[in-house]
Amino acid sequence: MKKGRNELLADEEKILASYAVSSRNSGARAYNEPEHPYRLPFQRDKDRIIHSHAFKRLEYKTQVFVYSEGDHFRNRLTHTLEVAGISKTISKVLGLNEDLSETIALAHDLGHSPFGHAGQEALAELMKDKGGFEHNKQSLRVVQKLERRYPDFPGLNLCEETLLGIMKHGGGYESTHLLEIRRSYGPSLEALVVDVSDEITYSAHDIEDGLESGLLMLDDVKHLSIWKRIEDSLPNSEKKSDLNSHSISRSIGRVLLNLMVSDLVDTIDLSLSKHKIVSRESIANAYQNKIKLVHFSEEFQKEFSGLKQYLFQNLYRHPEVSRMSERGKETIYLLFKHFESHPESIPESYRKREEEDGRMRIICDYIAGMTDRYAIEKLKREGILWFPY
């Protein structure tokens, strides 16, 4: 027998923990819409994100390696899907709202520029003293304003709790009703889980991709303090010293992922019990008292910090990655300066917002939404300057 909205809400509340965000408390949408008869609010939000143009473009945006380096390295889309999967798993175990965590995860990188963090650095520099640029803030801008799928309102008209989850602590957000709620109540546990799942995901898959690319060496990884945990969890067939990094890189990534998720779940469970978290209000109290609820165990955090430092020094700063990053930055600088002088090259859909947002902001929006390959093609089509990637 088909279940209606009220039955689905009741089913959800039977499995959610008392501190989870229920669909009944999803928060209002900025523009009134009738509720769907059998899709709950966060499910609708998730579908809106997946069908957005910004989400589709993530496939051709850099994670660490630009798209031309190979078909099997992570890109911004595969990273996003992995974050969503891990967030959903953790939320399910802890009795949180899986739909909300998954939705926040799917939206968390919508505002990311092309060419990874190098692209963000370039846009931040170009927009300095002009309102700035930060990809988390841009993600919120994408879902609230830039996406144009509905005739009756700008953006995707997502639920308040989804928007609050996309916002990151410390971001330079405009003073709005949404920001006041964020400051008063802090993030939901679902949002906090997504934040840490993001770190977990890129650490595990960057080790894997780094080893497969040959930029990282297994002998170096073996010197990390976290290696003992990894080695103990590896299949016996892959503990032989004569195996090279290519043959076990995927096992290392998989084992590392499981270790991080398991430690995080156990530690969150203890933290919620220790601080007597029983409701959304108790989460808000913890936030106001600067109590961290979502974190690794102390020992594991030290090892995880060592892993991140290793990746920073040996992968993200690797000469080959730096070379790709510098080309990405140069591409963005050239495009930005070109559009400043030749606004007619900017699509009309952006130009019509110039009076409202200013030329610098619409140029920033346009470039931030580009994929790596579109930015490179745009250089060629505009006859600016081009160098092979």
UniProtKB/TrEMBL annotation:
Key words, A-Z: Hydrolase
Domain annotation HD: ranges: 76-203
Pfam family, one: HD
Domain of life: Bacteria
PANTHER family (UniProt xref): BIS(5'-NUCLEOSYL)-TETRAPHOSPHATASE, SYMMETRICAL, SLR1885 PROTEIN
HAMAP family, sorted: dGTPase_type2
Family stated for the protein in its record: Belongs to the dGTPase family. Type 2 subfamily.
Name of the molecule in the record: Deoxyguanosinetriphosphate triphosphohydrolase-like protein
